[in-house]
């Protein structure tokens, strides 16, 4: 126990302190009087941690934990927050260890509660009241947010000792909770706070240079926010690319998640699509999912793309990628128009009935005999939208029912294969 006290006296963190904070690590059996500790806050922390360990040893197991364990872990983090107010950057490591532990307990308890609700539904058991109980994750994020603010608002003039270096650890914890709670508003609020304080904070690359896993996690969450929630595919691509480059590049589920974002963001932001064979060698699950999309980008097949999107709608919605894939449809459409343009001899004036017939055939995979005025009007609207987005260099001649395109680079933003 003396070693634990010395960590706070000499302001240094070590593995012994981190192990002491964990509820599942037994403590030394030697007798120690808390009255010998001059720091009352530290004495309270040690006492709370010992009770936390006792609760786990007596009432919990490897697969089941108690709600009391959560309350005790929450109290431990609150005490750590109080201790951290006058401390320097060294405290962020044990503070993060306590916060991550609270998150694990809250996650497991919410999972157990969800399983119990499923059992109750099968038994058609009536639940009292109309309001659901507050989830454990909702409780723990409030305490973790206090840890985040302690780091964010540290005014220590010594930049090397400032707790701002620990901001990104708690950012990752909060973002993981908001993702589980499907709380997009809180994700946006947290990112906006970081953006507003960017001049005061160390860069994530500097703050997390010794914590690669944390850095990759941060990049992934930022990619997810900007690309999936903010529809800023350029920034989403930049963060997804950084996450991929800083990962171990050994495959696995985590890298699959990164590449799952990287492929559509690269298509939309850089107009690149991957070599599907090379992708399949390293990320077969991702390649299997996106192979039909890449094929449609190459041949302009609208029907096949829409069939794929309909079949994978639930998966794309679950990953918050549905909007991105809907926008990729425009690029499939552009490819179809370019193929039609070449078929017509690359002339600068393309009749709308030719374009309309190509669109209808691509959508239905059936031969087209006649084209109606309504279909021509719909094609005009589609082309006007693409021209306004700079996908086509040209203009529409309504009186002549024709598309007039530039003689040079008529389709400047077409997707191409990456090398």
* Strand order of the biggest β-sheet: 2-4-3
User: How many domains make up the coordinates?
Assistant: 2
The ordered H/E elements are HHHHHHHHHHHHEHHHHHEHHEEE
Q: What form results from the Cα inertia axes?
A: elongated
Distance between the termini: 58 Å
Mean pLDDT: 91
Overall number of strands? 5
What integer value in Å does the Rg equal? 28 Å
Strand content: under 5%
Name the poorly predicted regions.
Answer: 126-131
Number of helices: 19
Class derived from helix and strand content: mainly alpha
Percent range of helical residues? 55-70%
The largest sheet is: 3 strands, antiparallel
InterPro entries: Csn12-like (IPR045114), PCI_dom (IPR000717), WH-like_DNA-bd_sf (IPR036388)
Family: Belongs to the CSN12 family.
GO molecular function, one term: double-stranded DNA binding
Protein name: LAQU0S04e09604g1_1
Quick structural overview:
The chain has helices at 2-9, 15-21, 40-59, 67-84, 92-122, 136-152, 167-181, 184-196, 204-207, 212-229, 233-246, 253-270, 276-282, 284-299, 302-311, 313-318, 322-343, 352-364, 373-388; strands spanning 272-273, 349-351, 394-397, 402-405, 416-417. With 419 residues, the protein is mainly alpha-helical.
Throw out a few tags for this protein.
2 domains, three-stranded antiparallel sheet, mainly alpha, 419 residues, Arc Repressor Mutant, subunit A, double-stranded DNA binding, elongated, 19 helices, RNA binding, two-stranded parallel ribbon
């Amino acid at each position: 126990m003396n070693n634990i006290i010395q960590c706070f006296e000499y302001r240094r963190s070590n593995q012994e302190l981190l192990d002491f904070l964990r509820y599942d690590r037994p403590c030394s059996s030697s007798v120690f009087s808390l009255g010998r500790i001059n720091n009352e806050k530290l004495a309270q922390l040690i006492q709370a941690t010992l009770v936390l360990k006792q609760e786990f040893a007596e009432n919990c197991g490897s697969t089941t934990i108690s709600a009391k364990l959560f309350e005790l872990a929450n109290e431990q983090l609150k005490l750590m927050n109080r201790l951290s107010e006058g401390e320097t950057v060294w405290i962020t490591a044990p503070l993060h260890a306590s916060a991550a532990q609270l998150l694990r307990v809250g996650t497991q308890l919410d999972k157990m509660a969800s399983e119990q609700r499923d059992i109750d539904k099968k038994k058609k058991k009536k639940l009292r009241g109309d309001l659901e109980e507050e989830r454990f994750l909702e409780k723990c994020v409030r305490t973790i947010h206090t840890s985040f603010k302690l780091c964010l608002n540290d005014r220590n003039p010594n930049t090397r000792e400032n707790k701002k270096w620990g901001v990104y650890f708690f950012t990752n914890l909060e973002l993981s909770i908001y993702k589980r709670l499907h709380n997009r508003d809180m994700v946006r609020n947290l990112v906006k706070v970081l953006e507003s304080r960017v001049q005061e904070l160390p860069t994530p690359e500097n703050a997390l240079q010794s914590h690669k896993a944390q850095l990759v996690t941060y990049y992934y969450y930022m990619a997810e926010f900007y690309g999936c929630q903010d529809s800023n595919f350029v920034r989403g691509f930049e963060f997804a690319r950084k996450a991929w480059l800083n990962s171990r590049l050994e495959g696995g589920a985590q890298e699959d998640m990164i590449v799952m974002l990287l492929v559509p963001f690269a298509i939309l932001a850089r107009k690149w699509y991957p070599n599907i064979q090379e992708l399949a060698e390293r990320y077969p699950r991702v390649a299997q999912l996106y192979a039909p999309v890449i094929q449609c980008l190459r041949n302009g097949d609208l029907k096949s793309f829409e069939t794929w999107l309909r079949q994978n709608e639930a998966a794309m919605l679950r990953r918050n990628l549905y909007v991105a894939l809907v926008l990729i449809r425009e690029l499939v459409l552009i490819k179809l128009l370019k193929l039609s343009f070449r078929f017509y001899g690359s002339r600068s004036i393309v009749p709308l009935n030719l374009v309309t017939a190509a669109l209808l055939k691509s959508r239905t995979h059936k031969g087209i005999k006649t084209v109606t005025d309504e279909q021509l009007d719909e094609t005009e609207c589609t082309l006007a939208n693409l021209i306004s987005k700079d996908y086509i260099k040209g203009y529409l001649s309504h009186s002549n029912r024709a598309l007039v395109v530039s003689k040079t680079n008529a389709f400047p933003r077409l997707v191409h294969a990456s090398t």
